[in-house]
Design brief:
The chain has 17 helices and 15 strands. The chain has 436 residues and is of the alpha/beta class. The strands form four sheets. Strands 1-4-5-15-10-11-14 form a seven-stranded mixed beta sheet, with helices on both faces.
Length: 436
């Protein structure tokens, strides 16, 4: 019988996070103070982040120890399995070997608890009583709500309104874990009210929801803000994925020719790719491909420049690929990928041509999702389906060229709360860019 699953013992759970910054060809461009456009004093971030996370944000150390309470919480679901997609390979009639890291086995159903648990821990350690955050499709909001239960900290979530409406059970999940959730834009904040006054039927965006969350955190001296992607410390926490995958690929006796992750803010892609890019920096050949939606083509059509991370202008200016901080994407079902910008570290890697980016529409990714569900048995989240589509494209290219290829992608989460999107696709009412 062919081996399908490659598993690690809990003792092999990573003990350190990997920081890619020391291995970059050039130092990252610093964030800027929007008022002065001078490099930001990290101390100014203390209004919304605990010092432990600020230190990680600016750290130059290659490895940062994972606190034992965080590793203990990870052990509920980590190490996650590496799966050989034999049935998908057969359906595609490809000589390629396709592997995927299944992050959907976490209690919250995605990769997001990797940073949610760490962020909750560092906040509680410094006496913070409340965390305020945004969420797109709800994966991050439910993950932080779960982490709140683990470390006994209050959580408040602003969920992008269109996703709040499309995915009602994500709201239920957040509330089940004991957190409070509101659709964004809302009447609760000045930034939310300003958006509604201008566009009463606004579907919302991650940029708007970030503004509301940061504003609330700034006005509550017992609260801090938590972000699910983009920032250096968030990408850092996700590198447990790639570190495990390196060990698992070694057990499988293969090494990937191409690594793929879906891309919204960058944490899922970076979590898998960064540990492999360390090996690329040391001379080992591997391609890394970020797959994003055509309706929010940050990496493929955005400009590489300084921009705000949110709509209202509460965040520092960051050097990144951006569509403009006031960009509101169409209401696609891959709500976690509807962000106007990209992680500065991912942006720098793309600008320096060390990684690649591709974009697909909903009419591309849902057939790929159905094929994956019907071969591998897992109904993927629409976000994950972008990575699946990219993997299928690579596998079909290997078939056409008659060349073997090893493909590894990150299955960032399952789609069990996304059945409304599948209903619309199967009924023919979805629309290529989610405009119907």
């Amino acid at each position: 019988m062919k081996q399908t699953k490659y598993l690690l013992d809990e003792s092999q759970l990573p003990k350190n996070y990997y920081n890619i910054i020391p291995d970059l060809p050039s130092p990252p461009p610093p964030p800027l103070d929007p008022a002065t456009r001078e490099p930001l004093d990290p101390g100014k971030l203390a209004a919304i982040f605990p010092m432990g996370l600020i230190e990680q944000e600016v750290s130059g150390q290659s490895e940062i120890p994972i606190p034992e309470p965080v590793r203990e919480a990870y052990s509920l679901f980590r190490p996650t399995p590496l799966i050989r997609a034999h049935r998908l390979e057969q359906a595609l009639k490809t000589p390629a070997h396709i592997y995927y890291k299944n992050e959907g086995v976490s209690p919250a159903g995605s990769h997001k608890p990797n940073t949610a648990i760490a962020q909750a821990y560092y906040n509680v350690r410094e006496g913070v009583h409340k965390l305020v955050t945004e969420t797109g499709a709800g994966q991050w909001g439910s993950a932080l709500s779960l982490a709140g239960t683990f470390f006994d900290i209050e959580v408040l979530v602003y969920m992008v309104k269109i996703s709040y409406q499309q995915k009602p059970y994500r709201k239920s999940m957040v509330q089940t874990y004991g957190a409070t959730i509101h659709p964004s834009p809302s009447e609760r904040t000045e930034s939310g009210r300003a958006i509604l006054a201008k566009t009463p039927d606004s579907p919302g965006s991650l940029g708007i929801a970030i503004s509301e969350a940061v504003e609330e955190a700034l006005h509550d001296n017992k609260a801090k803000y938590a972000l699910g992607s983009v920032l250096n410390h968030v990408l850092l926490h996700q590198t447990v994925i790639g570190q495990e995958a390196l060990l698992q690929m070694k057990i499988a006796g293969e090494y990937p020719d191409v690594i793929i992750g879906c891309h919204g803010g960058g944490s899922n892609f970076a979590g898998l790719a960064f540990p492999f890019l360390r090996e690329k920096a040391a001379g080992r050949q591997v391609r890394a491909v970020a797959a994003e939606p055509v309706s929010c083509p940050t990496l493929t059509k955005g400009e590489y420049r300084y921009d705000l991370g949110d709509t209202a202008g509460f965040t520092p200016l960051m050097k990144m690929y951006t569509l403009g901080h006031d960009f509101v994407p169409p209401a696609i079902h891959a709500g976690g990928l509807r962000y106007h910008g990209a992680a500065p570290l991912v942006s720098q890697l793309l600008h320096e041509k060390l990684i690649e980016a591709v974009a697909y529409g909903q009419d591309d990714i849902f057939p790929a999702a159905l094929l994956f569900a019907r071969t591998e048995g897992i109904i993927p989240a629409p976000e994950s389906a972008h990575a699946i589509k990219a993997a299928i494209v690579e596998a079909e290219r290997a078939r056409e060229e008659g060349q073997p290829k090893v493909i590894l992608f990150n299955l960032s989460g399952h789609g069990n709360f996304d059945m409304g999107a599948y209903d619309a696709f199967l009924a023919g009412t979805l629309g290529g860019n989610g405009k119907k």
